[in-house]
């Protein structure tokens, strides 16, 4: 009979491979510093910064007109999609990523194909793929796009 200890718990976080001591080790990434896999905390702060900027941009472009709100709720998400598509596709980083010292690259360290960045951005907007990650702390959207978020400092 299988017991709870053998199954683990969702509270323990994502599974890690027993052949690596830190996220990204099997991908050839350093444990810390430049080029290391970005921590969940840094990514979350970058996401909060990006989302706040998207809210401000959508409000500035489609804000109140004649006392009525022009926002339906999806405008910030559309701005978020466009931000990721344009900035990650050209610079490899969003504003939040830049502030937090992060960069999105392919596994070999080069810039990704714009088509893959578009797919990654769309999956990121769906939220669930971004919330499912592996032992290397890569979200499903990054795995499908062949990208990884690393530290720049």
Automatic annotation (TrEMBL):
It is a multi-pass membrane protein. GO terms for cellular component: plasma membrane. Residues 37-146 form the RDD domain. The keyword Coiled coil does not apply. The keyword Metal-binding does not apply. The chain crosses the membrane at residues 44-64, 76-94, 115-133. Residues 1-33 are annotated as: Disordered. PANTHER family: PROLINE-RICH ANTIGEN HOMOLOG, PROLINE-RICH ANTIGEN HOMOLOG-RELATED. This is RDD family protein.
């Amino acid at each position: 009979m299988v017991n709870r200890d053998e199954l683990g718990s969702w509270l323990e976080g994502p599974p890690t491979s027993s052949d690596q001591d830190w996220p990204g080790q099997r991908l050839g990434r350093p444990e810390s510093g430049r080029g290391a896999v970005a921590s969940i905390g840094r990514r979350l702060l970058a996401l909060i910064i990006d989302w706040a900027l998207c809210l401000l941009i959508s409000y500035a472009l489609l804000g109140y007109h004649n006392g009525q709100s022009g926002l339906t709720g999806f405008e910030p998400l559309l701005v978020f999609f466009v931000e990721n598509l344009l900035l990650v596709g050209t610079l490899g980083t969003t504003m939040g990523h830049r502030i937090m010292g992060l960069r999105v690259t392919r596994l070999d360290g080069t810039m990704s194909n714009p088509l893959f960045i578009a797919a990654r951005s769309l999956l990121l907007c769906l939220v669930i793929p971004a919330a499912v990650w592996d032992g290397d702390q890569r979200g499903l959207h990054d795995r499908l796009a062949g990208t990884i978020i690393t530290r720049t400092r």
